[in-house]
Amino acid sequence: MSTVELGKFSIGVGDRFAHQAKAQLQACILAEQAGVEVIPVWNKSNREHNFIGSEPASTRAAADAAVKALHWTKPYFCDADHINLTTVDRYLASCDFYTIDVADSIGKPASADSIDAFVKGHSHLIGTLRLEGIDEAIEITPELLRRTAEKFLFAVEEAGNVYRKIEDAKGQGSFIPEISMDETDAAQTPAELLIILAAIAAEGVPIQTIAPKFTGRFNKGVDYAGDVAQFRREIQLDVAAIAWAVRNLGLPANLKLSVHSGSDKFSIYAAIHEAARQSGVHLKTAGTTWLEEIIGLAESGGDGLALAKEIYTEAYAHREELCGPYATVIDINPAKLPAPGTVAAWTSPQYTSALRHDPHSPRYNSSFRQLLHVGFKIAARMGCRYLELLEANEAVIAKNVTENLFDRHIAPVFLGRPAPAAFLEHAEAK
User: Strands 209-211, 256-259: parallel, antiparallel or unpaired by DSSP?
Assistant: First the structure.
């Protein structure tokens, strides 16, 4: 049986309420028309399914319907996002891409025998490794090899257990495996990443993407917070380390980086494009589509604007509950959150200007945007009332979703085009 392979460029498109699949796919069609194939991967985490009360089958159904309606003939996938041994069963029937999240296992020790065997079996990694296309070498000492094994080997073994469970259920080569370790406290260095890849190869997991944690903050729905030059150096080294691992460790030839919480990171898109134009990249967006739904409702005025205001009022009242699960990936300044009474008096342009991710605009409010980003649970509680307004305002919402995904994400990352002027000026200023 042939192995299912992920293309060079792919984009994870979250769709909280499974209503924007066509609009998201349209952005990939625009990419194809511009000369680059970008494979859509619809992703939704177990946490989000639980918050909304949905099942993975709904994500699959929406993706299949969009593909049929728009006559998409390229590959596409549905991602069981951030799963582990306790949650993977829910996704076996509907998904063909599995993001195996091992962040909670990092730091837990493997057995002493396993660590000793790994270190002994990988002594060839010790020394100076010259990476193709990179002036800077990677130095691996015996101490670093053992320390990295002590920190990450158990997590890799857990990933192996999850992978084999999926393989037993679905068959070898019938799905895309990814290992994710981004939702942890400390970034992995390129040297650690190379050792981790060696452990993954030894565990027999044929990953096609890997999602490390980078330095800086990847807060949801807003721009990268960190040193852009440092990120550029880091991602170049990571890409070179992956290429070395493919050549020397027997990992799949199409193995590439996966950048999680990658939506709206305008200031680093040029660096991602530069580093990954040869090897490819998977950019996973998170919640940017849901925010375009709210922007579309607010733009529509009337009942749509009223509902958008109500969602903010409820999110403001329940902000501690909403923010808790996302504390490591948001950075909200409570002093910059407008009072609900103030928002209730806003016009449609005032609301959308505060929410739309245009850092050049004096009205843009990143704290307002981040609170609404995690506030999708409020809309979920509204049930049919929210969904009916989505459907009633589909045209304006779909236009926003497609333009946001193509102009602000696909074009700069995969086509290397400058971001729209406002975002470009912001990135240069940084």
Answer: parallel
> For residue 217, what is the DSSP state?
B
DSSP state of 219: -
Q: List Cβ<8 Å contacts ≥24 apart for 184-189.
A: 184/103, 184/106, 184/213, 186/213, 187/212, 187/213, 187/214, 187/215, 187/234, 188/212, 188/213
Contact of 212 with 255, CB cutoff 8 Å: no
DSSP conformational letter for 140: E
Q: What CA–CA distance (Å, rounded) separates 308 from 73?
A: 36
Torsion angle of C-alpha atoms 339, 342, 344, 348, degrees rounded to 10: -120
What φ, ψ does residue 13 adopt, rounded to 5°? -120, 105
Q: Using an 8 Å Cβ cutoff, are 322 and 315 in contact? A: yes
pLDDT in tens, 84-123: 999 999 999 999 999 999 999 999 999 999 999 999 999 9
Q: Which stretches within 171-227 are classed as H helix?
A: 190-203
Query: What gap in Å lies between CA 195 and CA 202, rounded to an integer?
Result: 11
- The two tokens of residue 426 are 């912001």
CA distance 207 to 200: 8
Length of the chain: 430
Q: How do residues 337-357 score in pLDDT, each as one tens digit?
A: 999 999 999 999 999 999 999
| CATH classification code of 9-286+404-429 | 3.20.20.70
Domain ranges of the chain: 9-286+404-429, 290-392
Cα–Cα nearest to 129, from 174, 193, 80: 193
Q: What is the Cα 354 distance to its own chain's centre?
A: 24
Cα(408)–Cα(40) distance, integer angstroms:
16
Alpha helices in 181-332 (DSSP H): 190-203, 228-249, 269-276, 288-300, 302-317, 319-323
Token digits of residue 298: 């607010």
Rounded to whole angstroms, what are the CA distances from 355 to 116, 233, 295, 362?
52, 32, 7, 12
pTM: 0.95
C-alpha 204 chain-centroid distance? 24
